[in-house]
Amino acid sequence: MPAAEGIDEMDGLIQPGQTLRMDRGGALVVVENLLGQGSQGVVHQARLGGAPFAVKWIRYGPGSDDLRKSISVLIQRGKPPHRSFVWPIDLVTSDQMPGFGYLMPLLESRFGSLAPILNMESNPSFRAVATIGRELVDAFSALHAAGLCYRDISFGNLRVDQEHCDVAIIDNDNVGVDGDPTLVKGTGPFMAPEILRDEALPSTATDLHSLAVLLFYLLMHGHPLLGIRADASYTWDHGGHISETELLVRNFGVHPLFIFDPDDRSNGPLPGDSVAAWWPIYPLQVRRAFTQAFTKGLHDASLYGGGRVLEGTWKPVLLGLHDSVGACPACGVPVYYDLETHGQRCWQCRDVMPPPPTLKAPGGTLVLSDGATLTRHHLFRDREFRTACASVEPHPGRPGRVILRNLTDQTWTVVPDGEDPKRVAPSQRMAVRPMQIDFGKVRGRIS
Amino acid sequence: MVTPTPTIKMPGGGIARRPLHFIILADCSWGMKGEKIQALNYAIADMMPHLAAWERDQEQAQVFIRAVAFATEPRWHIADPTPVSSLRWKPLQPVPKGLTNMGAAFALAAEAMAPGRIERRALRPALLLITDGLATDPPGKFEAGLNALMAQPAGRAALRLSIAIGRDAQSDALDKFIGDPSVPVLVANSTEEIANRLVAASLAVSRMSEVGADRSAVARRLFGGQEGVSQRIFDQDTII
Questions:
Q1: Residue from A34, A122, A132, A236 whose CB has the most chain B CBs within 10 Å, to mutate
Q2: Residue A5: its pLDDT value, please?
Q3: Cβ–Cβ contacts within 10 Å for residue B24, how many?
């Protein structure tokens, strides 16, 4: 958020140069430059014992005592076991003014807003988008598994490092125990229908709706419920502007209808809307998950038994999506191969794409396309998504074909169809063709 | 540092964002000549990158700028909605012997609010009136102009803010333009403060336009009036 220097002093907010005192132990924190401000308070860089941190100072006013209590609980609890959370470390107070703040880790400068991805100003690869989606799911899953809920999932609270596909979840002020009462309700387009109708408060179940909306925005570049029917309610005529809140409640709360609802197309995508171009390029398994989230999941908020889509479903969907990335053999554009579909056509040149070579391993089925990586998770199902066991590269002698390079320290034994068994030593490459592979402890099959 | 990659063709475009129309009504009366108009030009040029940075960091809104320059008569200084990220500000010039007729400026702005001129899905537009003096409108003209603006649903719904250059510039007229007792006139006591006030105003507009924002709560927080805030703040004209 843009910083506006020099106006804090009129608002009882902290200033660079001030010292604040940590609650536990009384260590002193020196306030440095303003990093950003929001409706709740300001965030400054700070120094503790010579090391850089960040401090958020909450505007003093109604509700700040309750917020202080709930942040204390988060501090006591410690952060969920996922590196993405920027979690409060300790409360801080000032001798010079009422109110409080909290110390937290300083977010590295490699993280930025997701807006450039959504607006298509930056163009992360298909694999990067799938990875970012999976990282987001993994993070919220860790939170929910700890019995907590986020309550205000929206892009404003997320940051991404596009180069490494790492995500950061900032602004954990609103996190609380699933089921506890709260004043926070969420951010418009992400709020679950039952919250907009004022029938429920934020919870893990409503977080899952927000997560589905987030993933839809990320993959499909649009809102799942904003189609022609919802659009028709926006008007400047008839004596006035309908308030934003009323529009939200009506279109996303009372009468929500998925733009790709298979049984009711009356809220289809607006003509020219990007979503209509993005939706069909995704494999059926992805579209099925979104369809569940925005048909049954709209009306059935239960976690148990088929309502909201759980993270346990999103994870294999996004892993599978990542594993399905390839390129059209005819025109070279990136594609997501749909292994359930015969005769899949390239979205760009409309040629029918032959089924790509795939490697089926215990942890998933990987399309063997240039740039693909076989990870430890594929072999051992241990969630080590960033440890490479093999890489797929272009075949130097045969254009259009690929090789698999052994990145492990084990020698593989491979039996290509119709050939004698061969050994592939560490660092060696082999041409991809139908075969059985023995990786040492696990086996796979290339088809 | 991310190495730029060659542009790969993509199946579709980005998210459809909702237009946020930001219309500046700038006083170009003769009283603004010299330091004041230069400070104003600088301040507007300075405000744009803040708005552009805010726009870049969120995915819901896209900001478009227009500007009316007014003195005895109003005219469009920027007539077409211009994306904030590509705006190049042409400096305003004061009008020799120009008066400060605000009503006519409001009526001109009202034309931009007419049916069909603001997209159906636009967020509520924002009008920012910047002036250094009292309205010099002939009798009835101020009200007529304001009524023309209010007669348009988009004009009535618009967020209206005002910056007064110099304490003397404050007036009932500006309060009437704003039309919301919880939102005070922002006063720039010196030319140096103009840039500051403009940035604060633009941030206020962007936050108040956020979907789901509780406008009066945001106004209270940005402009003061919250219980528990020290008394010193209520003594100031502007509270950001």
A1: A236
A2: 38
A3: 25
